[in-house]
Amino acid sequence: MFLSADIIDIASPLILLNIADASALGVSDGDRIFITNPNTGKSATIPATVSETFVQYGTALLTSGANQFVGISSGDVVDILPAKRPSSLDFIRKKIDGGKLTRAETAVIVSDITKKVLSQAEVTSYITASYINGMDMDEVEYLTREMVASGDTITFSKKPVVDKHSIGGVPGNKITLLVVPIIASSGLLIPKTSSRAITGAGGTADLMEALAPVAFSASEVQQMTEKAGGVIVWGGATNIVPADDVMISCEYPLKINGRGKMLASIIAKKAAVGSDTCVIDIPVGPGTKIADETEGKVLAGQLVDLGKRMGIRVECAITFGGAPVGRHIGVNLEVAEALRILENKDGSGSLVQKSCEIAGIALEMTGKAAVGNGADAAMALIRNGKALSKMREIIEIQGGDPNVKADDLTFGPFIYDVLAPADGAVISVKNRALIDIARVAGSPNEHGAGLRLHKKPGETVRKGEAMLTIYAEKEWRLSEAIELCRNTHPVTVSGMLLSRIGAE
Predict the structure, then answer these.
(1) Alpha helices, DSSP H only, in 290-418?
(2) In angstroms, rounded to a whole number, what is the distance separating the alpha carbons of residues 130 and 92?
(3) Which of 172, 169, 151, 219 is nearest to 191 (CA)?
(4) Cα gap 191→165, rounded to integer Å
């Protein structure tokens, strides 16, 4: 059937048909359409939606997400036919029933995810089935290899190629801004692809974007890394492991991240950028993704195993995640904190220590530092200014201002200090509450928003002294952040009365 085409700006790949056209084709809502552009021969299988009134008779209304595969213009004629039910659905059903998938079955599923053959609901079914029933390490390996094959890859002639990753869950974990220039300044290659914030107050890509553009193709990442030694870019723009991006978008509403899928996602991205050496930070403790050191060691063993299967030498660092890394949360606040350290100015002990420990492991793994001396070697690269020079080189090659300084970063003009209600010592901070407050204040979209934690666990505080400062670019956002702070009590001081409840 030939229909006149029109385009609607919706990201999800769909084709909308008038109910009369759908009936003539024998297509129901949710069935798939095989659509062909007669002018170019480009074709795709797209889920269909049927409407009585929204789409005119004789018209195929394509979303922009569907049109990326066929490349038609409004008014063009397209050829549409009913499509066969994809075999990947049978394999997803197999996983729902608790079966073990083969590599061939996994390949079909990942291919259909990447090509947008499967609907969001169908991808979610696969993710949920894998989450509930689990995946053994063979299945994880199959998924990892197929995720790598789903997009562009990078190969470097120079070895070793280093990468680092953090499991996440800890606010203020801006160590990539230090680790990358430290490692690159030692003469190693580190093509660091990073994510934007999903539930946090600032992903690494968000932080770097305050200094330079972060959206580049895989070939550009390769070229820049070979010239500067390292980059810090947004992985979502590279077409590296695109299947993972689709699956993440389906995971987000349910807030699930199954162990097997998480393992595959981490190692696939490292393999795709050509890394052969990787350090993985596993924060553990209250409020993190990993409850305790025991669980962290299990995860570390799985990552090391999967890395070995993929030809990547992996070493994991189990780190303390019970409090923020550094004292700042929010884009400009975190970037300024990292730059101050590179500039050999004041800096948080926890941020310096963790950055040097993680970078130091990579230096030891690659022979750039003697075993047991990696952290000191990393610190030396900060102290002698080589890490700062390398960071400026990275900023410049990504299109930013290499002369930017920590003092150039601006913070929101609307400020509120959270004061200690009594003398005492800070006995705990709530990571999740701190992240939520920073997000309500406007981070990461508003770069000047966030907070500064003046007091961390174990530190003493006097009544009326600031424990926390909130920054916002808009007054109404500051008001909402203050209200959330009052309800969540993100910082607990010994002897502090949280509430009184009694009869009226």
Answers:
(1) 293-309, 331-342, 349-365, 374-383, 386-397
(2) 9
(3) 219
(4) 12
- Name the residue ranges covered by the structural domains of the chain: 2-82, 88-134, 162-238+255-406, 414-493
Classify residue 412 as exposed, middle or buried by CB count within 10 Å of its CB (0-12, 13-18, 19+): buried
Please name the residue that has the structure tokens 């199959």: 142
| Greatest Cα pair distance in the chain | 78
Give the mean pLDDT of 284-299: 88
In one-letter notation, the amino acid at residue 213 is P
What's the pLDDT band for 451 if we cut at 50, 70, 90?
A: very high
* Local structure of residue 322 (DSSP, 8 states): S
Question: Does 88-134 match 414-493 in CATH topology?
Answer: no
pTM: 0.88
Q: Name the 3-class secondary structure at 108.
A: helix
* Three-class SS state of 132: helix
Topology of domain 88-134 in CATH is 1.20.970
Q: Which CATH architecture has domain 2-82?
A: Beta Barrel (2.40)
How is residue 98 annotated by DSSP?
T
User: Is 162-238+255-406 a domain of CATH 3.40.50.300?
Assistant: no
pLDDT of 500 higher than 60: no
165 pLDDT band (50/70/90 cuts)? very high
> Integer distance in angstroms from the first to the last C-alpha of the chain?
73
pLDDT surpassing 90 at residue 399: yes
Instruction: Please name the residues in contact with 8: beta carbons below 8 A apart, sequence gap of 6 or more.
Output: 16, 61, 62, 63, 64
90 within 8 A of 56, measured Cβ to Cβ: no
CATH code assigned to 414-493: 3.90.1170.30
